[in-house]
Specification:
The chain is mainly beta and about 325 residues long. Helix content is about 5%, strand content about 45%.
Length: about 325
């Protein structure tokens, strides 16, 4: 009997990958894990992680009028590590997530700073992706996979992030933390736990792009790591948090919805990885564009409908 087909929620762009190291105007080892946003004029901006030939990562901007083709990439690194003024960035800056903060009329870029004590979550602001105001660490190491919600809840900002336990056998869960001023954080709590055992998202999960606001709740696209005999597999799943109280998990899909399949997702510095850090969303068409790192070596694009994802969660989710 033929195997029943899984309902495809994300479809790969036919000309993937859209950006490779050869696309860059300067030498680099790899380009991947890009934050994404839409500018007021409709231009798509990617803030991509670029790893240089030393192994140190920085961030570089790529712009496109349609978000698919004709990428204009800065001719030199846009945001370099600054270990003199920010020692938490000694070994690079990585994996940005971009959130438009309406209250401040600027973009918050939450990224991983690779300190000598391990990775930690740091914050910068920008209005044009040319000039940046670094705010420094938000969380101590080891912590990563973080993004801000775009608005306050009862006067406080919310951060989704993923601390990494130091003891073997402990799960790496997704946490929420609260702040009145984006500087002082507290009321830390687990919001989505990693599962245990044979699950595709057992032991280690993390936020992928920032939360997406819908009428049904905050759509969370997250990654899970499955350790196999030949290495780790990074795949994508869905969850939904309450719109007014994101501490409440409404539902979470049991199955992964997107995983490595193609040559460019298996062949690279770290094969078997699809890792999105950014999306753009057109409410008029309901089209979600997911920009993801493939095999830690290039940037690829997949598209889907938010309504389809919410319907799938309704039919295939639980609250565990």
């Amino acid at each position: 009997m033929a195997k029943a087909a899984f309902r495809e929620l994300l479809r790969r762009y036919s000309d993937n990958p859209i950006i490779t190291p050869h696309s860059l105007p300067y030498p680099a080892n790899t380009v991947f894990n890009a934050g994404a946003t839409l500018m007021p004029d409709g231009e798509t901006v990617l803030l991509a992680r670029v790893e240089d030939r030393r192994g140190i990562s920085h961030l570089t901007v790529a712009r496109s009028p349609d978000g698919i083709r004709n990428w204009s990439i800065d001719d030199k690194p846009t945001l370099l590590p600054d270990p003199i003024n920010h020692p938490e960035e000694t070994w690079g800056i990585e994996d940005p997530r971009i959130t438009w903060i309406e209250e401040d009329q600027r973009f918050a870029v939450v990224y991983t700073a690779f300190s000598t004590s391990g990775p930690l979550v740091a914050l910068a602001f920008t209005r044009d992706f040319k000039e940046y105001e670094r705010r420094g660490p938000m969380m101590p190491p080891s912590d990563k996979d973080a993004a801000l919600f775009p608005r306050r809840f009862d006067g406080r900002w919310l951060l989704l992030h993923r601390p990494t336990p130091t003891e073997a056998g402990e799960r790496a869960n997704m946490w929420l933390s609260f702040s009145p001023d984006l500087r002082h954080w507290g009321d830390h709590q687990v919001v989505i736990p990693a599962r245990r055992g044979a699950w595709w998202d057992a032991d280690k999960i993390g936020l992928s792009p920032p939360p997406i606001e819908t009428s049904s709740g905050w759509l969370i696209i997250y990654h899970g790591v499955r350790r196999t005999a030949s290495g780790s597999l990074y795949r994508i799943g869905l969850a939904l948090l309450d719109l007014e109280d994101p501490r409440r998990l409404i539902t979470r899909g049991d199955e992964w919805i997107f995983g490595p399949e193609t040559q460019y997702e298996y062949s690279g510095d770290v094969g078997g990885v699809v890792f999105p850090c950014g999306t753009t969303y057109d409410k008029s068409t309901d089209e979600l564009r997911l920009y993801y790192g493939a095999a830690d070596s290039c940037i690829a694009l997949a598209t889907g409908k938010v309504a389809d994802m919410l319907e799938w969660l309704k039919n295939n989710g639980n609250n565990g």
